[in-house]
Amino acid sequence: MKVLDNMKDKSSKIMHDLYNKGKDTKLLTFGIYTVLFCIIFLFSYIGFWQNGKSFVWAQIDGTTQHYPALIYLGKYFRKIIRGFLAGNFVVPMFDFNLGMGSDIIQTFHYYGLGDPLMLLSAVVPVKYSVYLYNGFIILRTYLSGITFLSMCFYFKKEQMPSVSGALIYVFSGFAVFSGIRHPYFINPMIYLPLIIIGLDKVLKKEKPHLFITMIFISAISSFYFFYMITVFIFIYAIVRFFDLVKENRVKELCAAFFRCVIFYIAGVLMAGIIFIPVVIGFLNSGRSKDSPIINLFSYDVEGYKNIFIKFLGPPFNWEYLGMAAIVLFCIVIMFTRRNHKYRTIRVLFLILSIFSIVPFFSYMMNGFGYVSGRWTFGFALLISFIVVEYLPYIFQITLKEKGVLFFVVCLYGTICITDKATRNVSNLFSLAMLALCFVVILLLQHEDNKKSFRYGYSAIALFIGINLIANCNFLFSPTISNYISQFENQKQVLGKIFDTPASSALPIPKGEFYRIDSSTNIVNNIPAIREYPGISIYYSLVNSSLADMHYELENWRAQPLFNISGVDARSAIETLSSVRYFSLETGRNDNIPFGFVESYSKQRGKKTDVVYENRYALPLGYTYSSFTSMDKYSQLNGLEKQDSMMQSVALPKRIEGFTEKEPNITLKKLEYEIEASKGVRLEDGKLVVSQDNAQMNIKFKGIENSETYIRFKNLEADDSPFYASINFQDGGKNFKALEKQSPWYFGQKNYSINLGYRTNPLESIIVTFPKRKTINLEDIEIYCQPMDNYPINAELLKSEPLENIKVLGNTIEGTVDLSSNKILCISIPWNSGWKAKVDGKDVEILKANNMFMGIPLVNGHHEVSLSYTTPGLKLGALSSLIGLIIFLVVVLGYKNKSNLVFKYKKK
C-alpha cells in the first residue's frame, strides 16, 4: 500500500506540473506527448504488423512512385558521396534511365529530394529500404506533433490541452489517410506550425530568423505544398495584424507588409538553387497542361452532407477532415463564447470553412489544376488549435451551451439516420462517438479548482485517445473498411518493384547505349531503379517533350501524360527510340514489334522470359538526309506521323542547304463493315452503348506484312472512364480512356491502338463495351501500316550514325562522318538544359520530330559533344547566395542593434 501511495503522489505531482504553465514543464510535456503518441500509434496501426503489411500503398503511387523514389534517392546520394570521396565533384543532373532521359532535380523534388530527412536514405542499403520508408512515415507524423506543441508553447497555452491538440492533429484525417499513401504530404504538417511562429514574431517586430529559415526549408522541400503554405500565411498575417495593431493601422500595415515580404523573399531566395529549377520544370512539364474545369461554385447536396458528416470519424479521403468527436463541441463553444481575444481564431475558422464548401478554393489551393482537398492539413492545424484554446472551457459549460451541444448531436444524428446515402456503418460509428463524447462532457462538469481540472483533463485525454484509436482501426480493419488491404506485404514489396521481364536483357555491356522495352512492368519506374535505359516512366513531373510525343502519337498507353507505360509495341516508335531488345514473359499474347527476332530465353525466378532483338535498331544518334516542315507534320494524325518520322525529320524551321521533302505516307485507311452489332450503335458523332457487354464485330480486308491499328477519333467521355475490349484472332487489348472530368485528363481525344504485326492480313476484330454508356465519338477507323519500306528506311537512318559514343554523367560525346548534309537526331527528349558543340563550336539544338534533339550538320567528319545543366540551376545558385547574404545581414543586424526589436503598443 505504501508503494501505491508513493506512486499516486508522484503521479499527482507530474499531473500538477503538467497542468501549470512554464518552461520547466516543456520537456515533461514533450515526454507525455511522446508516450501517448507511441501508445495511440501502436494500437492504431497494429494491424499492419499483424498482417505483415508495409506502409507502401500498393494500388498506385506507393509502389509505382514513392517507394521507388526513396530507393533511387538513396542510390543517388551514395553515388554523389562516392564521387566526392574519389575526387569527382560533378553532381549528376540528368539520368538517361528516367523515361528516355530526364532531369533528376525536377523529377524527384516532389518526392523528397529537398527534404532534409531524405538524406538519411544515403546510409540505408536497398534491402532495408522498406523499413526506412515505414520509419520515415512514423517519424514525420511524430515531428508534426512536436512542432504543433512548439506553437502552443509560443502562444503560452496550457500543457495538457496542447498535448490533446497535438494528438488530434497528428491523427487527423489528412495525416492518417494520406500520410501513408503519400509520405511527403506530412512535411507541410511539420513546417506550418513553425512558420506560424516565425510569422507571428515578424508581425510583432521580433527576430525573423525562424520565419526565414522555415520558408527556406519549406520551399526547398516541396514547391507544391509551399504554394499552399504561402496562401495560409498570407491569410493569417492579415487577420493577425488587425488583432495585434490598434493604432496607426495604415502606416503599420505598410511596414508589416514590407517586413514580411522581404523576409519571405529572403527565404525563397535561399531555396533558389532547387526551387527555381523545379518551378521551371513544372512550367515545362506534361503536368502543366490544362485540366478540365468543372463546377467551381458549389457541390451537390450529398457533397455538403458529407462535408459535415465526415468532419468527424474515420477518414476515407483527404476531402473530409475525419477529426475526433471533441472537436465539434470545442468549435460550438468557440461561437457561444464571444471572447475578443479569440477573434483571430474565429475569423480564420470561418475563412477556411468557406474554403471547404466552395470548390473554387480547393481548385485555387491546388495551383488551379483541379479540385483537391490536399490543403486540409492547414484546416486540421487550425481546428486542433481550437481544441487547445477551448478545451479548458469544456468542463464548465452553461445550460444554454449544453442545449446547443445537444442540438448539434441531434442534427448530426438526423442526417446520419434519416438519409439512406449517409446511413452507413462509418457514419453511425461517428455518431456513437459524438454522443458518447457528449455524455463524457456532462459527467466531467465541475467547480473551478485545479484538482478537478487535472482529473477532467485526464479523462478527456483518455477519451480522445480511444476515439483516435477507434477511428484508425475502423479505417484499417480487414473486417470493416479494410483500407489495410491496399498496402504491400512487407516481405514482397522490394521484389515486386524490381520484377521486370527487362531484367532478362541485362546487363548492358560497358561503353554501349541502347534501350530495353518489355511487354509489361509492374512499376513503370523500374528502368531508373534497375539502372538501364528504358522507355517507361511514372512521376508527377515529366519532360513536356516526352509528354507531347505520346500525345501527338495518340499513344493510349500514356494516360495520364506523366504515366507512360511504353509505346504499345509500335515498331517505328520502338526503333526511333533506340530500343534494341524487347523482353516478353512466356504465356502472354502481347504484340512483338516488327523486326524483333527471338534471341534467347532466360529464367527469372519461376518465370521464363523470351528476349527479342531488333534487327533494325537505331543507335542513340542517327541521321536524316531530309526534313519536313512542322506545318505539314502537324497536319498528320498520330499514325501518319510515325510513318513520316521513318523517312524525314520534322523540324520547327527551314534550314538552308538541307533538303526539304514531303514524306510518302504509306499508311492505309481501310473500309470496313459492322457485321453484327447488338446493344451498341455509332451515329451522329456519338457511341451509344445501351446494354452491358455490348459487342461490335468489325470486318475489313487487311493488308499482308503490315501492322494493324484501330483508331478512336475525337473520343470524349464525360463523367466516367470509357472501356473497351478489343479481341482478334491471336490476342486482345483492354482499352481505357480517361473521362473529361478526371483531374488527370489533359485533352486527349484521339487514340490509336496497335493490334500487332502479321505476315497474313488481319480481317476482323470484336470490340466489347463492358458498361452502358454514351460518349462523343466521331468515328472508328481501321488502319494498316505496310512494312515493305520499313527495313530500307531504318537502314538509311543508321547508315551514317553517331559513333564512338560516350555517355558520361551529364555529357554525350561522339563522332559522325557524313557524305552529305544531314540532320543528326539524338533520341533523348529535347530539353533546354542541353547545350551542343560541333567541332568545338556552339550550335543550336532543334526539336526534332517535336520530341528529340536535332543538330543540322554539313558533310564531313565532326566531333559532337552535348552537356547538360539543369535549367535555372545557375540562376538558382546565384539566388541562394543572395538570399544567404540577406539572411546573414538580418541576423547580424538584429544581434548588433537591439533597438531594431520593439513591439506594438496595445491598449
Automatic annotation (TrEMBL):
Leader sequence range is none
Which superkingdom, per the lineage? Bacteria
Q: Which UniProt keywords apply?
A: Membrane, Transmembrane, Transmembrane helix
Q: Which InterPro entries does this entry report, sorted A to Z?
A: Uncharacterised_YfhO
What residue ranges are annotated as transmembrane? 27-48, 80-98, 110-131, 167-190, 210-239, 260-283, 318-335, 347-365, 371-391, 403-422, 428-444, 456-476, 875-894
Keyword presence, NAD: no
**Entry protein name:** Membrane protein YfhO
